[in-house]
Amino acid sequence: MKHYDILIIGGGAAGFFAAINIAELHPKLKVAILERGKEVLTKVKVSGGGRCNVTHAQFIPQELVTYYPRGEKELLGPFHTFMTGDTMQWFESRGVELKIEEDGRIFPVTNSSQTIIDCFLNEAKKYNVEVLTNHSVTSFKEVNEQWEIETKNGQFSSKKLIVASGSNPKIWSYLEDLGHAISKPVPSLFTFNIKDERIKEIPGVVAQNVTVKVVNSNLESSGPLLITHWGMSAPSILKLSAYGALELANQDYKFKIEVNFINQDFNNVIGQLKEYKQELSKKTVINYTQFDLPKRLWKTLVSAASITTETRWADLNKVQLEALANQLTKAIFNVNGKSTFKEEFVTAGGVDLKEINFKNYQSKLYENLYLVGEIINIDAVTGGFNFQNAWTGAYIVAKNIMN
Known about the structure:
- The protein is of the alpha+beta class.
- It folds into two domains: about 1-185 and about 345-400, FAD/NAD(P)-binding domain (3-Layer(bba) Sandwich); about 190-340, no CATH class.
- It contains 14 helices and 21 strands.
- Strand 13 and strand 14 form a beta hairpin.
């Protein structure tokens, strides 16, 4: 049995960040990462479309926490210790140049996740962190104030154990055996599968200022909406999927949404359409796009309101005006299933937040057990927030692990 001062289960973002910071802050400690696969940092590699969305340009803790459907209250203290600006400084001080894009997302200037991976691997080597791949954990238990960990490739012991294995059902079950309560994991951050004639022929179209509601619920979000080959995506949908993760899972991902494509009130739109009826009387409705909508979307909504290609604005009757206003502001779509957002997979669920001390991310059940990243019941909307949760928790563990 090989002994270490600190073992980390999981060779992902949180695991590497914790290991490197521990080794830098406490150079005498013997630190190792146990990774179940043959490669490390696989989720970092595919994140942000292969560019790695490192974090988000939100620099006020009270604002940053609002992007976390689960964990908002618990993260406020940790974010006062280590947050976005600290993350940027950490990477830039290690030679990784970062850039802030218009939507607030932060990426390496290289636009390559490999830059982040190389940084981690170089830092791990520099600080003598052992990275043990193909070491899938089969059990761990506390014996005489030491952790004993069995993997498929050997047995290990350590004074302290950090679990940073992400959304891993097997590790959750081991933690449950140790007495931890696990909130049932369900997918978060997913797109909606919708088959509807109105959007069938217009994949790739983006409406910029949309409000989406789940019918018969309090779930609502705003932002850009993307029409895809399988339905709808983009921030307005992804945000809804994150905040509605539990509720939508309970409905087996079969529900109705109401889409306001122009984010305006129905009655106001009726008034505007009547004005267009006067001003554009001789023009055909379908060829004169209004409300800054993409042309292809406007045409499909006009057709859905039973307005023909030859119909002029002057010819619109009351029924057609109301039908068009409905399509613009209250369009109902049937959702039947979900799809994973790109190659990124985020879950809501994990170790119950009441069982973690957020001053040091220590388990309240075991003094020498620490839990960080997606193994705990914290998740965020898309845009770099899930990584920020990982960096913050991992840094705080590193800072406090010898206290």
